[in-house]
Amino acid sequence: MCRHARGKARSVAAVAGQRPVLGVDTVVALEGRIYGKPGDAGEAEAMLEALAGRAHDVVSGLCLLTPAWEEIRYEVTRVLFRGLTPRDLASYVASGEWEGRAGAYAIQGRGAALVERVEGDYLNVVGLPAALLVGLLAERFAGLYGFG
Question: Helices 41-51 & 86-95, crossing angle to 10 degrees?
Fold first, then answer.
């Protein structure tokens, strides 16, 4: 995911001029298996079924890029899903909210009902590791961000 975040940032850097560019990529990891964006409803249902009743990690790679430097970091947030019934799975998949979402869910929407607990940066699960980004901005642009 760090490599993808870097690629996203670099893909628009030429048109950004001197402005900083941010690239972020998020995946879901469960017991060594990586879950990206499902290709279809069947794959989405299989992902959600695998996550049901279990804790998984949401890992986001972040690349902040300027013409002078590049910073690459990552953030991990632990998410515990509640147990899901076949009806829960079918209803969520039918909503279509899983489309384009790593791990086949969107915690900021109906997917919140799938989650029992979040340990770490909630916004990382949404797709932007905000605490990590703010810390990096405070380091690199202390006069604009942060308190120094």
Answer: 140
What pTM was estimated for this model as a whole? 0.91
pLDDT at residue 148 greater than cutoff 60:
no
User: Which CATH number does the domain housing residue 121 bear?
Assistant: 3.90.950.10
| Structure token digits, residue 18 | 């001197």
Tell me, yes or no, if 88 is annotated catalytic. Answer: no
In a domain, 63, yes or no: yes
Range of the domain at 130: 2-140
Catalytic residue (choose from 25, 40, 57, 121): 25
Q: Is residue 147 part of a domain?
A: no
Dihedral angle, C-alpha 53, 57, 58, 63, nearest 10 ° = 180
The answer as to whether 72 is a domain residue is: yes
- Better pLDDT: 14 or 71: 71
Stretch 44-72: mean pLDDT, rounded?
97
Residues 6 and 21: their CA atoms lie apart, in Å, by 10
